[in-house]
Amino acid sequence: MESKNIYYIDFGTQARFVEEIEKMNTEYYLANGRNKKYHIVTYGCQMNVHDSEKLAGMLNAMGYIETENIQEADLIIFNTCSVREHAESRVYGNIGPLKRLKDKKPDLIIGVCGCMPQQLEVAQKLAKLFPFLDIIFGTKSLHKFPQLLYTAITEKRTVIDVSENEDVVVEGIPTARKQGVSAFVNIIYGCNNFCSYCIVPYVRGRERSRRPEEIIYEIEQLAQNGVKEVTLLGQNVNSYGKDLVNGITFPKLLEKINEIKGIERIRFVTSHPKDLSNELIAAMRDLEKVCEHIHLPVQSGSTRILKAMNRHYTKEDYLRLVEKLKTNIPDIAITTDIIVGFPGETDEDFEDTLDVCKKVEFDSAYTFIYSKRRGTPAEKMPNQVPDNIKHQRFQRLVKLVEEIALKKNKQMLGKTYEILIDGRSKRNNLLVGRTRTNKVVNVKCPEEYMFKFVNVKILEAAEHWLYGEVI
Ligand code: 5AD
Ligand code: SF4
Predict the structure, then answer these.
(1) Which of 40, 59, 313, 456 is the 20 to 30 A CA-CA neighbour of 390?
(2) What is the CATH class of 9-161?
(3) What's the gap between Cα 153 and its chain centre?
(4) Distance, CA of 452 to CA of 447 (rounded, Å)
(5) Average pLDDT over residues 91-105
(6) pTM over cut 0.90
(7) Cβ neighbours of 66 (radius 10 Å)
(8) Ligand 1 contact, 368 CB (< 6 A)
(9) Which CATH architecture has domain 168-410?
């Protein structure tokens, strides 16, 4: 037995539907001289971005091709996020106008998937508001997409699938990553933490680790195809392996990945401060491919609010952890997530958050205004903070975070860093890459440096980017 209670299933169970749709698409091609096209719109985190790569992989396997232009698509999918109300409203606002496209092209298939419809009442609301939708399915049904699509096409009805299969890990879903040298790799799905503001445990289920051999095999294949940098994904990567019985831990997994030939940089998101072990800090220090960057969401600097958030650490615990990281990994970049206006947050609590920012000096921080989420404990908490106060605090926090980010980036001026070039800046024709510490650097260099490592001297620094030249 490899795991305590997880069922590993293979995408092969969907083969019949993939084949059937591919046949239909081949017939379409022969009759019309063109392939059917798909367009995916993605909201939310890297986990969702990677899920969209799987949707794209499945669609490619079924004979569709991608288009950037939503107007010419034969199939449109919205992969949604529920983490804040704003993300949800954008989706409602953007689905409505698709009705006109569907009126013009009755065979157009429109699907909504991801974290929103994983909540049954949201799936029902979507079906009611937008009766022209063809497929509505949650995160837990991602792998069943071919079957759902087949049913929608052949039965010409809205197909809704919001299954509650908690303990499943699906292997072998085809994945279409954008061409490049960096790749996302899932290592653990779900979350057991139940932070009191957060919808994630309800829409992504309990923690389920992938088997190490599957992860290693996937990364070896990626390396053979030219990938140099992997980002390991999990809502809480530090929990990796706790649900497996073979004794593997996250640091041990890092050790194994560190040995894979061709992989030069290893990153991971996200780490929960309560689970960040000494063993992991040692692994980050000792394994040469593991980058000197950690995303360590603090959420609040107030011990009282952290308790109400169910985070299981105090302000002092967090500061001690940061000290330990900085001592062991001298040039480490620390980034974070911060919420302002959690229910009951006083001016004093907010000052504690500012204080943590000043003490840690985050390289960058994602800042959020607290948003009430259905069914979470914080939704019902008394003393919800009025909007104007939330906004005032938010402005102050952003200002401080930006000042610190600029100060940190300016410290890099005149120094030389290894950059992995992996993109192009749209504005000024420069190539763009990242340092090991995950800082974005615009680089003046010839096209042939694309997807290569180069040493770059930093000449300009702003809050969110740097500029440099190859030396
Ligand atoms: N309101 C505001 N921000 C939230 N986050 C999660 N839930 C909420 C919420 N209800 C933020 C947290 C998390 C990030 C992904 O989103 O900071 O780390
Ligand atoms: Fe990602 Fe959470 Fe948004 Fe889902 S709800 S897309 S897991 S951030």
Answers:
(1) 313
(2) alpha beta
(3) 30
(4) 10
(5) 95
(6) yes
(7) 14
(8) yes
(9) Alpha-Beta Horseshoe (3.80)
Give, in words, the CATH class of 416-470: mainly beta
User: Which H or E run contains 292?
Assistant: none
Query: At 353, which helix (H) or strand (E)?
Result: helix 347-360
Contact 54, 61 (CB under 8 A): no
Taking alpha carbons only, the member of 361, 366, 352 closest to residue 322 is: 361
The closest alpha carbon to 251, from 262, 263, 269, 239, belongs to: 239
| Averaged pLDDT, 261-280 | 97
Helix residue ranges, H only, 363-422:
387-410
Q: Is 339 in the pocket of ligand 1 (CB under 6 A)?
A: yes
Q: Which residue has the tokens 């445990």?
A: 201
Tell whether ligand 1 has an atom less than 6 A from the beta carbon of residue 36.
Answer: no
Q: What is the 3-state secondary structure (H, E, C) of 7-70?
A: EEEEHHHHHHHHHHHHHHHHHHHHHHCCCCEEEEEECCCHHHHHHHHHHHHHHHHCCCEECCCH
User: Among 45, 46, 339, which is best to mutate for testing ligand 1, by the most ligand atoms less than 8 A from CB?
Assistant: 339
Antiparallel, parallel or unpaired: β 416-424 and 293-295: unpaired
Alpha-carbon distances of 29 from 37, 69, 167, 235, rounded to whole Å: 11, 19, 39, 41
Confidence of residue 178 (pLDDT cuts 50, 70, 90): confident
